[in-house]
Design goal:
The chain is α+β, with helices and mostly antiparallel strands and about 180 residues long. Helices cover about 40% and strands about 20% of the residues.
Length: about 180
């Protein structure tokens, strides 16, 4: 089952996240996701219990390289039935409070909390998915998208705040210009 979920996640990255979308000014949902699969810089971990402790442990022991090479993303997968969407949100918030000062951030996706912009639904949907990455790298990528593309042009303010702005200590000028 783990191998199947990894294959499903890789397929979702390649066929959905990498596909240009009108809602995103004809840019991919995540322009940076497919290269992590293509370049083998994404790692996959399965967690079945104690999600908060596992996330903290992974974050505290983050390494930018392992025996397979460069690491940009760790995808942590957990069965949906193990945690409610509220529990995942609470866990992620607590973990981010500790890890963000260490330049690590967690983005979560729970199948029961639909992430939607217009007709576009962003959820992986097959399990709880937590993505761990360097905060500075993720924020730099968001700034570049705001500065050099129209990626965020159609984003509602509340969605921009929920998905992106919360990660910054101060809203960068490139993103501030998107605020009404």
């Amino acid at each position: 089952m783990e191998r199947e979920l990894i294959n499903d996640l890789k397929d979702w990255i390649k066929t959905f996240l990498a596909k240009p979308q009108a809602e995103l000014s004809n840019l991919p949902v995540c322009p940076y996701a497919k290269p992590t699969v293509d370049n083998n810089t994404i790692r996959f971990k399965f967690v079945y219990d104690d999600l908060e402790e596992h996330l903290l442990d992974l974050g505290r022991n983050w390494t930018d390289e392992d025996n397979e090479g460069k690491v940009e993303i760790i995808a942590i997968l957990t069965p949906t039935e193990n945690y409610s969407e509220e529990e995942v949100a609470d866990i992620t918030e607590a973990v981010n409070d500790e890890l963000m000062p260490l330049d690590i951030v967690i983005l979560d996706d729970h199948p029961e909390r639909e992430e939607r912009m217009g007709k576009l639904v962003f959820n992986f949907g097959k399990c709880i998915l937590c993505l761990m990455a360097r905060l500075s790298v993720l924020n730099h990528a968001s700034e570049q998208l705001a500065k050099n593309t129209e990626y965020y042009k159609k984003w509602p303010k509340d969605y921009l705040e929920w998905v992106t702005l919360w990660r910054f200590k101060e809203t960068p000028a490139s993103l501030k210009k998107l605020m009404p």
